[in-house]
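Objective 1b of the project was to move from sequence-level analysis to a structural picture of ligand recognition. The entry below was assembled by the postdoctoral researcher (A.K.) and checked by the PI before modelling. It contains the amino acid sequence of the target and the SMILES of the bound compound, zinc ion.
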Amino acid sequence: MQVEKTRFGGWLKKTAVLAGPLLLLLVAQGIFFAGKAPSIEIEPGMPAIGKQTPFQVKVSEARRGLTRVRIECVQEGRAVTLAEKTYSASPQFFPWGRKTATDTLTATAGSLNVQGLAEGTAVIRATADRAATWLRRPGPVSGEISLPVRLTAPSIQVTSIHTYVSRGGSELVTYRVGKTAVRDGVRAGSRWFPGYPLPEGEAGDRFALFSVPYDRSEPDARLVAADDAGNESEETFIDRFYAKSFKSDTLTIGDAFLSKVVPEILSQTPGFEDRGGLLENYLAINRELRLSNAETIVELARKSKPEFLWSGPFLMLPNSKATATFGDNRTYFYQGKAVDRQVHLGIDFASVRNAAIPAPNDGIVVWARYLGIYGNTVVIDHGYGLMSISGHLSSIAVEEGRRVSRGDVIGNTGTTGLAGGDHLHFCTLLQGLPVNPVEWSDGHWIRDRITRKLEEAKKRQQ
Ligand SMILES: [Zn+2]
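Corresponding predicted holo structure:
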């Protein structure tokens, strides 16, 4: 017992010797040390304040934690609170207790939430308060950035006339935008057709190739110009719209067809999830793979060269017969039951077996390999977002990156992909969206709808 007592006494002594200074330190820091000033970073999501400009504010106070953060928009001495948040600080003598050392806040500033905001300059200010000590109440710290306020959308003025467009067809529009525009083009539903500087035009003179997509029954296309603060102008500009209706078609699919197309597409499509049955796999190919292939084509269009690589009408497969047309509404029957519906977005040309396929026009080959439902495929970029696709090839005669001229053999027709018999699936595309190729094969249409408008725009500048 005696021994135990002595040991315990020694431990107590040691603890007291160690704990004394520690306690002093704790008291001292609780009284005096407020810690480093909080750091504040304000990051605007846009280079100017417009209708609704987002901000991200990062605040940190590692020692004691934050007690309050306020974000304001200040103009001409008038401050409007955009966001405010309070926090519970750590207890004074236990800085390791619960606290909020860093936080990221978001807020928006613009004419929508700051009443009376005027063009000019405004300041975004963030103020952070931190926990007090016994003797010190550290003042709040604030950080601010100054940004231009722009509330006037860029001007936009259509300069071409006679904008006549068919459903699923293409058209060209020329226009002029104001200096503050950073993005312009034609918006049709969810599709975006970017504008480009008019070749040899003055600053602000632009043109866009666009389509009223095959799946829109209204010509709800708008010419749009936006500035870097999100202010947007819109202009309607279509004079005439032909609400072309598309054919209905039925396709009967049998087991022989399924066992020809499904295993091939599966073996050529890494990452495709096997659904277990021929029909199940076929339906997944016809729906999901079709969509994924369409996305791949849209991706290709993003790299389209901003120049006219083509001239004159597009060539179709010579000595052939069209067996399916653009926009056909297809219903697929299996064992007498309708199992799927899809829109056929191209023209099918049947000729002799393994017929040589001419390049439809001058351009650069951007895809020359297998592409899901289209089998062996050649995609050619003709510039300014205009491309062409040739599918179901038995062989490909060109490499990606190669320049081709109209008429150069790019491959031979075949039955790869979703094809029953030997044929060519051909289509023209604008920004990856299939558009009726009949227009692009028509020299009169090209003169009237495309080249005439570009020439007239050039004349206006002289
Ligand atoms: Zn086809």
